[in-house]
Amino acid sequence: MQLVHQIQNPLESNYENVSARFDSELGILWTLVKQNDVPCVTNQLLEDLGNHHKSITHSGGQVVSSGKVHDIRYSVMASLTPGVFNLGGQLSLFRQMIRENNREVLMSYATKCIDVIMPRINHFDSSLTTITLIQGDALGGGLEAALASDIIVAEKGCPMGFPEILFNLFPGMGAYSLVARKVGAQQAEKMIMSGKIYTAEELYEIGLVDVLAEKGHGDMAVYDYIERNDRRSNGYIAMRKAREIFNPVTYKELIDITTVWVDSALKLSERDLKVMERFVRSQEKRFAQPQQLQQVPQQYIA
Questions:
Q1: Distance between CA atoms of 85 and 147, rounded to whole angstroms?
Q2: Which end of the chain is less packed: N or C, by CB atoms within 10 Å?
Q3: Under a CB-based contact definition with an 8 Å cutoff, are residues 188 and 175 in contact?
Q4: 131 with 75: CB under 8 angstroms?
Q5: Structural contact between residues 33 and 45, judged by C-beta atoms closer than 8 angstroms
């Protein structure tokens, strides 16, 4: 049996934008994003999530809680910002780097995004199941991050979609690869090219959302799903492995696509950037005051 002191414990790390909780009874590691400003994919969030994900991988899919070693059976990602999962890429940074023609910074940012979602796609090199809980807006890169999980649980009415085409760009950090594998290439292109913001109900109907929860009850829907899945977990994991052998998501595929995104971003016109600016102003206006983060629900902790 592995000794406690040999495990890199994902619960011990302290990050500005990410906290972790563990439910030892069910083996659930909750990864909770906590941003006081505009809840988008910032470099700081990428650094925190990247380090947290590395700790899960390096732990061998285990945590130390109350002096005991526990297997992580489920990794659940959620947001503590009321009404928002994540609004997507940091548009203010994009706008500045495009105007400066700074390809290096854009490529670095895009690569960090891939480096963050890849461990979830690979289940942290273990047999654990990944789940994303969406309880608010999940747009652009925020939705891409959500889709890196095996299972999407979303509350009714949550707005979800890829608005990037409205400023003449596309979501380049996994959207096409992840949506196409789940609901088909035709549906992926329809979502990306329309720029439409869907409801969770609409995406549940086409199969992109796996579990539809009542408003305010998303966390309990996660527990209900886990309880049901536990009875058939062996079969589910075997089927998932077969699917990934048949149609794997590779790092090279994601990097190649995000390179196309960088090259396309640098071709945006001033008119396109002004549309992007309107998105930035809208987000900044919505989050002009520091956000009062939700308290961690007690049921997240055994």
A1: 12
A2: N
A3: yes
A4: yes
A5: yes
The pLDDT tens digits for 196-252 are: 999 999 999 999 999 999 999 999 999 999 999 888 888 989 999 999 999 999 999
Environment class of 176 (CB within 10 Å of its CB; exposed 0-12, middle 13-18, buried 19+): buried
First to last CA, the chain: 23
pLDDT tens digits, 244-289: 999 999 999 999 999 999 999 999 999 999 999 999 999 888 887 6
Q: Quick one: pLDDT band at residue 178, thresholds 50, 70, 90?
A: very high
Listed in sequence order, the residues at least 6 apart from 274 whose beta carbon sits closer than 8 Å to its beta carbon are none
For 163, half-sphere exposure in the C-beta direction (CA atoms, 13 angstrom radius) is: 18
Q: Which two tokens stand for residue 223?
A: 């527990």
Report yes or no: 86 and 33 within 8 Å, Cβ to Cβ: yes
What was the pLDDT predicted at 144?
Answer: 98
pTM metric for this prediction? 0.92
> How long is the chain?
302
Three state DSSP letters for the chain? CCCHHHCCCCCCCCCCCEEEEEECCCCEEEEEECCCCCCCECHHHHHHHHHHHHHHHHCCCEEEECCEEEECCEEEEEECCCCEEECCECHHHHHHHHHCCCHHHHHHHHHHHHHHHHHHHCHHHCCCEEEEEECCEEECHHHHHHHCCCEEEEECCCEEECHHHHHCCCCCCCHHHHHHHHHCHHHHHHHHHHCCEEEHHHHHHHCCCCEEECCCCHHHHHHHHHHHHHCCHHHHHHHHHHHHHHCCCCHHHHHHHHHHHHHHHCCCCHHHHHHHHHHHHHHHHHCCCCCCCCCCCHHHCC
